[in-house]
Amino acid sequence: MWNYEKRLQFPVKITQPNAKLAQVIISQFGGPDGELAASMRYLSQRYSMPYNEVAGLLTDIGTEELAHMEMICAIVYQLTKDLSMDEIVASGFDKYYVDHTLALWPQSAGGVPFNACVFQSKGDAITDLTEDMAAEQKARTTYDNILRLVHDQEVCDPIRFLRAREIVHFQRFGEALRIVQDKLDSKNFYAFNPEFDRCKN
Amino acid sequence: MSHKMNAEQENMLRNIGIVDFVTVEMTEYLDTHPFDREAMEYFNHYMRMKNQMMRDYAVKYGPLSLSAADTCSKEWKWALQPMPWEGGC
Amino acid sequence: MQDYNFNEYFDRFPLAMAYVPWQHLTQIYEDLDKAYCTGTIFPELTKPFTGRRCVQ
Predict the structure, then answer these.
(1) Whole-model pTM above 0.90?
(2) What is the mean pLDDT of residues C37-55?
(3) Which of A126, A164, A174 sits opposite C39 (nearest CB)?
(4) Burial label, B75 (beta-carbon count in 10 A; 0-12, 13-18, 19+)
(5) Distance from B14 to chain A by nearest Cα, in Å?
(6) Is A196 among the domain residues?
(7) Of A169, A184, A103, whose CA–CA distance to A131 is shortest?
(8) Residue pLDDT, tens place only, B71-83
(9) What's the total number of domains in chain A?
(10) Which residue segment(s) compose the domain that A87 sits in?
(11) What are the tens digits of pLDDT across the range A89-99?
């Protein structure tokens, strides 16, 4: 189960509002490759994972992604909380504001509401870990794209932190896949699905 | 409303963030290297440090976790303190 | 034109599978504040983004 620590994993201290940036960065909250998607993906996949080390890793990274989701929400919140009505209208943020005021709601930058279709939990160890490696790369690319748009150091710092985490997670999921490979027959990794066809251990 | 922290509080909070970050990195490394003794010692060292720093912070500035929420009995600081997304981290 | 480097350990890395090399605990940043700002305690996993769009 989960505990909560009343602090952000990495500081977010933004003094300059920027509605246009907020509309883009919100994709890392509710978008297809965002932190909520990552968290739900890993936390969903872990139940049927027959290897404790891998289930443990999915739990730990899935939990860290919730902390990242919190950071993204803090960034969007701080970028929008002091906006004037003129700024809300001029930036196009009025389309979001009319439905949510200044509340955080998980959607992509394009307005697509968060939904489970953006991730898979396929129930095959190799498939799910490959999905997870792809997910970390997609998230990293999204952060690369955000960094090209951001010029404010206060926003860059937490974004760079989050981007670095994606690369570390990719390494970990890659190692988890190596662990799964070790447990299977290297002559044919695909002979059966270890989550379904045999008992654990 | 933004909460202004004094330099000491901000410093303590940042140091907790740093030390906790080390434990998170080590946890994930150990998940895929579960027999790495050196990594385990590293983790233990920084986890102990973090727990002590959390207790020290709670005494002065209020609890960061519910397990430290009993440090003050005059008011329910856990709810009354500013939230982390307000800009104080 | 050179071929891709096919000089691989076929016996250790069978086909139709992805392999990420194992990380070993060789280096941890001494300056933990720097590690925190970087986003990892491992220098080997530090891969900063320096891309710039340059349109001809």
Answers:
(1) yes
(2) 93
(3) A164
(4) exposed
(5) 8
(6) no
(7) A169
(8) 667 889 999 999 9
(9) 1
(10) 19-183
(11) 999 999 999 99
